[in-house]
Design goal:
The chain has 24 helices and 19 strands. The chain is α+β, with helices and mostly antiparallel strands. It has three domains: about 160 residues, no CATH class; about 230 residues, no CATH class; about 260 residues, no CATH class.
Length: about 700
Amino acid sequence: MDYREFPLEGREELEERYDLAIERIRQILTEESVEEPYRDYFRKMAAFILQMDQVLTDTRSGRRKNMSLEELEDYNHSLYEDILPGQYDSSYANPDYGTRTLGEEHGRLLSFLYTELRGMIVYAYEYRLEDMTILCELFLEVYNRFEEETLPAYRDLKNILYWFVSDYSDRTVEYRIREQVDPSLSFAADIIREADLSDVRYLYAFGEYISENELATARFLNTLSEEEICGMAKTFTEGYRIGFVKAGKPLQKKTSVNIRYTLGFERIVRQAMENFREMGLSCILYRAAVSSINKRQQAKIGYFGGNPNKQYDYDHKDDCAIYLDAPFVERKLGVLRASYEKYSKLAEEHAGPAVMETFGELPFIPETKETCFKLNKRQQKLLVRYDSEAGRLVNTYIPGDERSFTIIAYPVCEIGKDYEGIFRETVKVNTLDYRQYEKIQQYLIDALDQADYVEIKGAKGNRTHMRVQLWKLDHPDRESIFENCVADVNIPVGEVFTSPVLKGTEGVLHVSRVYLNELKYEDLELTFQDGWVTDYTCGNFPKEEDNRRYILENVLFHHESLPLGEFAIGTNTTAYVMGKKYGIEGRLPILIAEKTGPHFAVGDTCYSWSEEVRVFNPDGKEIVAKDNEVSARRTEDVSKAYMNCHTDITIPYEELGELTAVTKEGRRIPLIKDGRFVLAGCEVLNDPLEELGG
């Protein structure tokens, strides 16, 4: 609960608890009751907490509003400097340093504790005094154990952390659910509505780390006309609206939409908020989670600023290994269920997310560390089970057949010296004439609807050789296998996609280099048999076990295997040429990259949780290939029908030797040959490619 929502008597009691904790923590700075090396750790943590107390004081007084830009930059840097790359090697937040100085067992747990304490930055900015108080009390409980004559046993220390996370889950999880559906929690929305966006100092009001990316984005957007800003916002919000119209979903029944974005884009977001308001939708902006219990590994879901250190996020992605067991999963699911029930009306009226992604950040290949917590096989299965059950709960209270989404992407200045040119080119790509693509893509669909399977072969060192089995049409005069995807929910325009039949889908999928969820993969290779991944590897690390673990954790998401949920052909050669022209093809986001060649998604189909919604192509034919053998299980046991993940892997045109539709009779219909479209009616897609030559 937000501190300001407490009744007066509850507020006074909370303030008293907080003040007592802070006073006790202040004493730690000079105490010597804990032996070294632990004394240094606790003094540094105490100093950090007292810094957060000052941040809270500054929030109360409004002091930051009068700071200069330089003062705000220094203030912001001081909050995050301990985990910045230059300082991280000697930070207790780094499990390597923690275990080296504090011992393998205690060091890992105390590193986790520090990571949880860092959530206080957010709580101090949002005035969430209860969250700050319980973290202070946790810190003191751990400190008291180290004051005893003997060091606390690993099990005892781990139990303190376990019960802290478990006991407070009824408030931490509930608040997280409320954040996602309740527009009255308007911290970020208020900043965007009320701030002078021409003065980039507003960026420091969120409490997020502010890098040059966020500053440069805000400054660049301030050079654009109101007409340009309105045009970008309209592309974003109209895509969202059209997604509901195309799917026949009832937008008029909805009252809220969630905007997810990276700081710096507030001029577009403010206009998007106004556009959504005119549709009858209040905007919800919730922050990416900062506490372990609400995180999904290193992924950031919500709004967020710059990333001070991706290695730090990666090091702590599996911290839940401390407390993840069967009783905890049951407790968290119970809290999740109760929370959705409490906010069921708000959930029912929620329309889904509108997402503004960024791209262009420097490539990141994480370092694998033995000192980090890792999920054992039992915990991996528990996490898969939790994700499945949680997905079902979300679908119960925010029905998949009544919600939608849209996604768009823009570059950040880290992409290089051509940033402004790339930004403008991206705007062009995002607003291509969908009517032209709709017509061209229909030629592809007409050919694919005749096929029994599609054969895909790589070229120029690409080892791909895949056979993708397709749905059988009973009524080809009024049914279709592939969806004609134009720019609505997935911006930009440019793909046709289907849910493959798993049985008979087999082969090797290989790509020399690809970025998936901000992680880089070299020589990624997946082997399929009857539509399921049976083997996998990549070339990121010297040890094969590290390569396999990297894919298991970040592509398979701890599933022993995943099915091929989608096969698609990207047709946006303009986006492909943009990537080649500026040398950024390896840094395009999945959203754009998937439109620049055939792509394969492992995990759920594109129609998960909304298979019963009838979908039609512009030619009036109904799309019938929405299920596969996995999602079809929902009629018998829904817990076995969904994987709760979907990752697209694209083969760029330059690595594509052949993509051919093969009919039942064995007739071959070439669609792409040597990286060029060869099907009649699709030749215009090659025009942008001719700019590249060859």
